[in-house]
Amino acid sequence: MAVNYIPRRFNIVRDKERCIECGCCVRQCSNECHYFEAGGTTVLADSTNCVACHRCVDLCPTSALRIEKHVCDYRENANWTPQYQQEICRQAASGGTLLSGMGNPKPYPIYWDKILLNASQVTNPSIDPLREPMEIRTILGRKPEKLTVERKGKAITKMPPQVVVETPILFSAMSFGSISLNAQKSLAMAAQNLGTLFNTGEGGLHPDLEPYTDRAIVQVASGRFGVHKDYLNSARIVEIKIGQGAKPGIGGHLPGEKVNVEVSNARMIPEGSDAISPAPHHDIYSIEDLRQLIWSIKQATGNQKPVSVKIAAVHNVAAIVSGCARAGADIIAIDGFRGGTGAAPTRIRDNVGIPIELALAAADSRLREEGIRSQISLIAAGSFRCSADIVKAIALGADACYCASAPLIAMGCHMCQTCNTGKCNWGIATQRPELTKRLNPDIMHERVENLITAWNHEIKEIMGGMGINSVDSLRGNRLMLRGIGLSDRELAILGIKHAGE
Amino acid sequence: MKRVYAKEELCLNCRLCEVYCKTAHSASKDVLKANKYETPAPVSRVTVYGDKLRSAAVNCRHCENPKCVQACITGAMTKDPATGIVAVDEHKCIGCMTCLAVCPYGCITTGRFAIKCDLCRGETEPACVKNCPNRALVYTDLGGAQE
User: Fold this and answer.
1) Which residues fall within 8 angstroms of residue B36, CB to CB, at 6 or more apart?
2) Tell me, what's the ipTM?
């Protein structure tokens, strides 16, 4: 319809001098942008549906392709930007909620970029991680309030279950359904080889992942998909998912067309039916209710598994975290508003929640004030782009960090933010068999391992520079952080000094 | 001997193996020149059959007892006893295409002379295997003799 004009986002630019008409782009684009001219051998492109996933660009053997931003100028208006006008057009045509994938792309402040790290000079020596041991092993789980030791030095305090990870970087929850089995398998293999953990998300456990359950965190979410006794007992950690950073207060909806036989078996729901996770857990309306669920899970697992509670970073996060700790959670994961998702209403993704930096600092401070910080493990989530972000998070008080977007980028993701369409050209956020086979776990687990190994090296290097040889000495060590260009209020919440102080 | 094996479950149907096979068997060895500007145009020794859902790259199996070698009337087609590679001597081949008629895998292509995979003789890994973006082609010795 003429009034519904929405200009395309991108142009596919083909260098005709370089195009060899091999048709690789035609066969790779799931959005069907490239095509052979009818009956001919000339490759053409229609850019209308291009999402800039770069699959064609990456695979073109002669580098004949380039994606550029399509510019169709609107009358300048700082308020009614083209994006809002286009979204209004889209909703005027469809009457529906706008959906998006991945994390919040809006230019909110990124506090990681406004925090600087310390290094040793003269008065205390820095450490060379290549010559001296550097400890980044992390132990997750509830710690006893005090340790009683008998005369010979043997501890008589009964330790609650602990989980040892060789790096403070864990893979965050991504369910089978939202991502392909091959993507999950790649993460599981990487977790096993790295000695860290992957998270099944709320989609149950596919039988192919059973060899890796020793490195699995399994989720119990509001839809209770795929939850049974063996599922809980097979994992290292059981996580109750209350909220997700990308869409706090919102449930999940895996459309029926993505629920194929495999997904239906893993989730224990009929094939082709919509998998709807309610917004709340219908049995949790208070901290006391949460305590009951934690207790039930501990009963079901014979008190052998730490129970984690994952919440989205929202306004009153410190009090909520404190409540979760008192409800018996051994580990609390806080997911900031830049965390990714397979699909979320755009308005929720872009406007609800708070940054992980502030939420983490507030929660850590509150738990310390209440004297219970050392009892529980805190996991921060919600967009860690590099090892420095991880170091800053640990110094703000995190025991470990959940990373998902970065490993996905290592597996091919180009942040085109259209996970919700199920047409992922990289075989990640899709269940279409012709697309999922594009992700070879044998290649991708190596790439993810390389990424985390590289980050581990960098974390050790940064810690060494600070004169710290153990991640335990970095945790909550906010003296290692300085703010730059932050207001007094922001500095107070982050609990850090300004640069120069 | 080491052979190229195709993994159908990983094949993307991108057909880059064909592009790089042509390049490896061109005069220029340059992917752009070989596939666009060179004459005579090089011919791919590997062919991807199938569609987007199921596809596989098919090339010469380098059989133990190759029918093409038995059928060759000029002695141009030989199996190297040392490497096991079945290859055509372009100077001896007269283009009668008897080999093409007897090949059970359809792996010989017509031209001025018979064109077939030579496992990129001398290379540690054939071009198709080296350039497969999804490791759908593997170059390995699985032991078993073929025909």
Assistant:
1) A18, A19, A20, A62
2) 0.92
